Automatic annotation (TrEMBL):
Organism of this sequence: Menidia menidia (Atlantic silverside)
Keywords: Disulfide bond, Immunoglobulin domain, Membrane, Repeat, Signal, Transmembrane, Transmembrane helix
Stored PROSITE patterns: IG_LIKE
Signal sequence, renumbered to the chain: 1-26
Taxonomic lineage of the native organism: Eukaryota, Metazoa, Chordata, Craniata, Vertebrata
Record-given protein name: (Atlantic silverside) hypothetical protein
Amino acid sequence: MMVKWEIIRKFILIFGLTLIGSRAQAEEWPPRIVHHPSDVVVRVGSPATLSCRADGAPKPSIGWLRNGQPLETAQGDGQLTPMVLSEGSLFFLSVGGGRRGQSHEGVYACVARNGVGVATSRNASLFIAGLQDEFSVQPADVEVAEGQAAVLNCGPPAGHPEPNVSWKKDGVPINSSDHHYTVVDSLFIARFVLLAAAAAVFLLALFMLLPFHFLEPVHAKALRAP
């Protein structure tokens, strides 16, 4: 009888330990990316953040890839090297540009790991905002007959992101909804009827994430027919 109870006790003990182990395993799961990073465009010297969050049990650690290679991250203030924040996001205190070795531009992905598995986020690109110095076509002064449309040509420089072009007339921004003016592929057409000997001064502004770029003012003048 004593032997039988000893067998039953061992069986209960083994069953209990198995149940506890199964329950512990059930409370562990591989990482899952719950917030993927998105593309960012930033000026050189400005801060930037690539967001990433992941869950899992045990809590996963998060590292980053740049152009498919493991990224070295900072443990301190991240002055030159990006640092991983507590939730997993990658923070750049000052985005570097210029030579390839010093530039932070590239394709990034976060990688979450724990003892159960690994999860990798979607790719996100960090672009350095840039603008070429030269306009391919610069607007010039124009004279037209009274009542005719004045056309001002402009070929803005290429940039990333693509720059926006804005015009002013006599120092006042031109309303894009005004039917008197049309901009088609940076070709500016002033359709207003100029009075004889009247003149208008136009200013072209090119803007994006970089500081504004202005060109010298140009003049549109109406001439009265003889």
